[in-house]
Amino acid sequence: MTDPSQYVRQREKGARDVSYPVSPEPLAVPVYDNHCHLEIEDGEGMSLDEQLLRAGEVGVAGVVQAGGDIDSSRWSAWAAASHPRVLAAVAIHPNEAPAYAEQGMLDEAIAVIDELAAQPRVRAIGETGLDFFRTEGEGLPAQFESFEAHIALAKKHGIAMQIHDRDAHEAVLETLERVGAPERTVFHCFSGDADMARIAADRGYWLSFAGNVTFKNAQNLRDALAVTPRERILVETDAPFLTPTPFRGRPNAPYLVPVTVRFMAAELGVELDEFCAQLAANTLEVYGAFED
Q1: H or E element, residue 235
Q2: Beta-carbon contacts of residue 174 (< 8 Å; ≥ 6 apart)
Q3: Is the preceding omega at residue 127 within 30 degrees of 0, hence cis?
Q4: Which 3 state secondary structure label does DSSP give 62?
Q5: Which of 264, 286, 202 has its CA nearest to residue 27?
Q6: Is 158 left (phi over 0), alpha (psi -120 to 50) or beta?
Q7: d(CA 178, CA 81)
Q8: What is the pLDDT of residues 181-213, one digit of tens each?
Q9: DSSP category for residue 183
């Protein structure tokens, strides 16, 4: 792709309500959305500028835009270079790795990620990891190969790593322990339980909670949140997915972060402004300053 700014993906709409929810009450202390996919157009759609404007109006000071293949990673790097409130994460998603491997292109794809990771506003390798839900059998060796290569890239460039972990908790933890995790390792959209949260926090990893922490059937996430040290907690949207209750199923966007933040603060029984300040400090510790 010659012009990464023109890249866009469409999310399947189906029969769901695809209107954007109303904006929540603004946060007094700004926070950051540490993982989103704003190249994916959902519902009525919003431009990147509109996304950032609406987020800023409710106290979301910046976003980390994550890639999952060559094109979306290039778009993420372009977005970060073009907007002072965007930082980028770049990677080959674990479910994309087997497809690249089948075409004999996995090494080439990882080389592109290596090149993008050298850009100053690319601050993470991600999302990478393991997914035993959508990939199994013959596709797993490529996932492991890709995951370990991405770990090496995060170390090489001295940047953070965002992990995708679906139904692969033990294998992800074992891989990180065996090959050595990057200094700043984030479990994007943490999906484990309290026991896993304790292990991850004890190893110095950060746990990022998305809108699904608000879902009725996600008690495991609330239990994990309760035992995670405050200095290891991050918040994200994973937009356009995982829209928090009461808007579940509708398009998600960074401006809805305050819904999840207020829910998390109430669950933890902590003062909202203090919690927001901690989340912001944690984000900046992982990714560095947004404004150059």
Answers
A1: strand 233-235
A2: none
A3: yes
A4: strand
A5: 264
A6: left
A7: 34
A8: 999 999 999 999 999 999 999 999 999 999 999
A9: S
Following DSSP, what letter does each residue of 237-285 receive, concatenated? Answer: --TTS-PPTTSTTSPP-GGGHHHHHHHHHHHHT--HHHHHHHHHHHHHH
What stretches of the chain show up as alpha helix (H) in DSSP?
A: 48-57, 70-82, 97-102, 106-117, 140-157, 169-179, 194-202, 219-227, 257-268, 272-287
pLDDT tens digits for range 7-57 = 677 788 888 889 999 999 999 999 999 999 999 999 888 999 999 999 999
Assess contact for 169 and 133: CB atoms under 8 A.
no
Q: Do 279 and 234 form a contact (C-beta atoms < 8 A)? A: yes
pLDDT for position 8: 76
Give per-residue pLDDT as tens, 250-273: 999 999 999 999 999 999 999 999
Q: What's the rounded Cα separation, in Å, for the pair 177 and 198? A: 15
- pLDDT at position 137 over 90: no
- pTM score: 0.95
Enter the tokens of residue 139.
């596709």
For the CA atoms of 190, 191, 196, 199, the dihedral, rounded to the nearest 10 degrees, stands at -20
Distance, in Å, from the CA atom of 241 to the CA atom of 163, rounded to the nearest integer, reads 17
Q: What pairs with residue 187 in β-bridges?
A: 163, 207
